[in-house]
Amino acid sequence: EEPVLLAELKPGRPQRYDWKSSCETWSVAFSPDGAWFAWSQGHCVVKLIPWPLGEAELCKTSERKSRAGKAEPRSRGAAKEKTLECGQIVWGLAFSAWPAAEDGDTDPACAVGLPCLVLATGLNDGQIKVWEVQTGHLLFSLLGHQDVVRDLSFAPNGSPILVSASRDKTLRVWDLSRDGILLPSGDTFLLSPGRQVQVLSGHVQWVYCCSISPDCSMLCSAAGEKSALLWSMRSYTLIRRLEGHQSSVVSCDFSPDSALLVTASYDACVIMWDPYTGEQLRTLRHVPLHSTLDSSSEIHTSSLRSVCFSPEGLYLATVADDRLLRIWALELRSPVAFAPMTNGLCCMYFPHGGFIATGTRDGHVQFWTAPRVLSSLKHLCRKALRTFLTTYQVLALPIPRKLKEFLTYRTF
């Protein structure tokens, strides 16, 4: 089935054309539980929207908008949409759900008065602002980067570890639970440098993207270079360079079991890697739908912007400059579905599957249906095993070769 457009969000204020307003939606994000959606709608503004839990309710929201011109108000007492005035162009967004305190233990979030759900925003001036989701209040700012903070990634295990990627060619690791002094600055707080754990240097170009593996053992970063860098999240040292692209790598994402890594490049290709060995497992090439295009226009129009895994790990979504959203099945080399979209910049799956959010250069967000799949028992077993076994550990198991190949994604 081709993706169907379910709903579209547009900036609520007229577009301005000075560079300070910048209308692009460079980042979209769902909270881990799927209850909140955030988008950088341009004009230095982030919208926080309490989100329906199912596709049916999303469709109803779209229908209400088409009938009434705007969404019907939510019931009294329900979470309300919030507008975050960031003061700078917003490039990166990341949610973090931190566990509540148990048995009298100190909640890492509560060490600095943080709630259980926060949103970090990466800004044009190098700041990272951290907001309380339930109230929309600014909690504090992280200072250290010298240029645009292009992307953000929280540790998926719920710990308050944040990685930021910047145009200053570095990545920075922040521990928001560490003791530090909050320095008042007007109505906000500037977080002391003590919370910066590490500065990762190794890129020679702007860093576009960072992604922490679900098992929190690895970090991948993509810059305006032909190689992506893979880092250890335990020692914060470089593990290896992933070389294979012919142009700038701009996006990366790990599979839900951490066994696969995908990178997307301006060379119109997605490469699927084994992050443990550095081996290239598959290359997905973005060719034009119309054969009338020549090879030079193919490379230009298919330059990739974003790639992401589906929650169950059987599909990929990509956004490219040829005005198409593509959905790929893991075992196939050609897309299984296309959707026409204009000026796409980013994409992200809903945490529970079923649809995809895409952001555009016009400041819009579109929500598309995505294939729903019932994972096979084989894939569920593979996913469960690979969550805690590395490729080398699988290869050392006393099991048949074909089973090893399946568990390491050498056969699909």
UniProtKB/TrEMBL annotation:
InterPro entries: SOCS_box (IPR001496), SOCS_box-like_dom_sf (IPR036036), WD40/YVTN_repeat-like_dom_sf (IPR015943), WD40_PAC1 (IPR020472), WD40_repeat_CS (IPR019775), WD40_repeat_dom_sf (IPR036322), WD40_rpt (IPR001680), WSB_SOCS-box_domain (IPR051983)
Gene: Wsb2
WD repeat coordinates: 119-141, 142-177, 200-241, 242-283, 297-331
Signal peptide: none
CDD domains membership: SOCS_WSB_SWIP, WD40
Keyword terms, alphabetized: Repeat, Ubl conjugation pathway, WD repeat
One Pfam family of this chain: WD40
One of the GO BP terms on file: protein polyubiquitination
Protein name: WSB2 protein
Pathway annotation from the record: Protein modification; protein ubiquitination
Occurrences of domain SOCS box (ranges): 376-412
Domain of life: Eukaryota
PROSITE patterns: SOCS, WD_REPEATS_1, WD_REPEATS_2, WD_REPEATS_REGION
Naturally occurring in which organism (per UniProt): Origma solitaria
